[in-house]
Amino acid sequence: MNLSVIKSAVLAAMPFMLLFVAGIVDAIGFIHLKNGLFVSFMSGNTTHVAMLLSSHQYHQSLPYIGVILLFVTGITVGEMIAVLQRKNYRWLVMSAVSILLCSAIFIEQITIPMATNFVLAFAMGLQNIALRITINKAMPLTFATAFLANTGRELAMLLLGQGDKKVFIKQISLWLSIFIGAIVGSELMVVSLSYALVVPIILCICIAGLLFWLKELTNDD
Questions:
Q1: Contacts from 212-219 at CB under 8 Å and sequence distance 24+?
Q2: Helix 58-84 × helix 42-54 angle, to 10°
Q3: What span, in angstroms and rounded, lies between the C-alpha atoms of 38 and 47?
Q4: What is the pLDDT of residues 110-165, one digit of tens each?
Q5: 205 sits in which H/E element
Q6: How far is residue 156's CA from residue 160's CA, in Å, rounded to a whole number?
């Protein structure tokens, strides 16, 4: 098979791999604290913050606010890396995500559980930048609602005889990547956090390696 064909196939599969990782880590973070705090699904955290603040539970809202801020900080850092290292930022970002996930294992051993989730949230924010490997404009990796909305739209077009079955399958597959990832993350947490994080760490290292291999094909957004 032609090398360019293989590279194109890997490129096309990249968003599904990244969404799968995001689903795994989100489930790990949620189960780790057992309090409904997500590390990549910021819509849920935003709703929780709003409800807690409206009922004057200011202290309880702080972890959610912290996770949201760190998630945004991760995206900010990722964008800065993208601007400063335009030709290399994709594999550099995923290498950084791998290191952060590894550090979460050690942080869990020496400090409070919330600190681990803060690291995971920062890592998931940073990872959002890597999805630019497949599209011209940045798209949040963890916005599952968008993929469901697109799935519904494409289904409507198909029912009207105007849709594209391939587009419909792609949209629902993107959502399923998060969904299946969350299932895997939940199963892994049956053992321990350290054990569970090994899988996304290995996946992120592999993705970083693939992005390094593909960098000459993806130098331009």
A1: 212/91, 213/7, 214/7, 214/10, 214/11, 214/90, 214/133, 215/87, 215/88, 215/90, 215/91, 217/4, 217/7, 217/11, 218/11, 218/90, 218/133, 219/86, 219/87
A2: 150
A3: 11
A4: 988 899 999 999 999 999 887 664 444 555 566 677 788 888 989 999 999 888 88
A5: helix 193-214
A6: 6
Q: How far is CA 157 from the centre of its chain?
A: 29
Instruction: Compute the residue count for the chain.
Output: 221
Q: Which two tokens stand for residue 201?
A: 């760490």
Closest by alpha carbon to 32, among 182, 159, 179, 186? Answer: 186
- The single-letter code of the amino acid at 39 is V
Tell me which amino acid residue 170 is: K
* Token output for 76: 């900010």
Q: Which residue is it, tokens 């990249």?
A: 14
Residue type, 162: Q
**What angle is formed at CA 26 by the lines to CA 23 and CA 28, rounded to 5 degrees?**
110
pLDDT given at position 125: 92
Print burial letters for 75-91: b (CB count within 10 Å at least 16), e (below 16).
Answer: bebbbebbeeeeebbbb
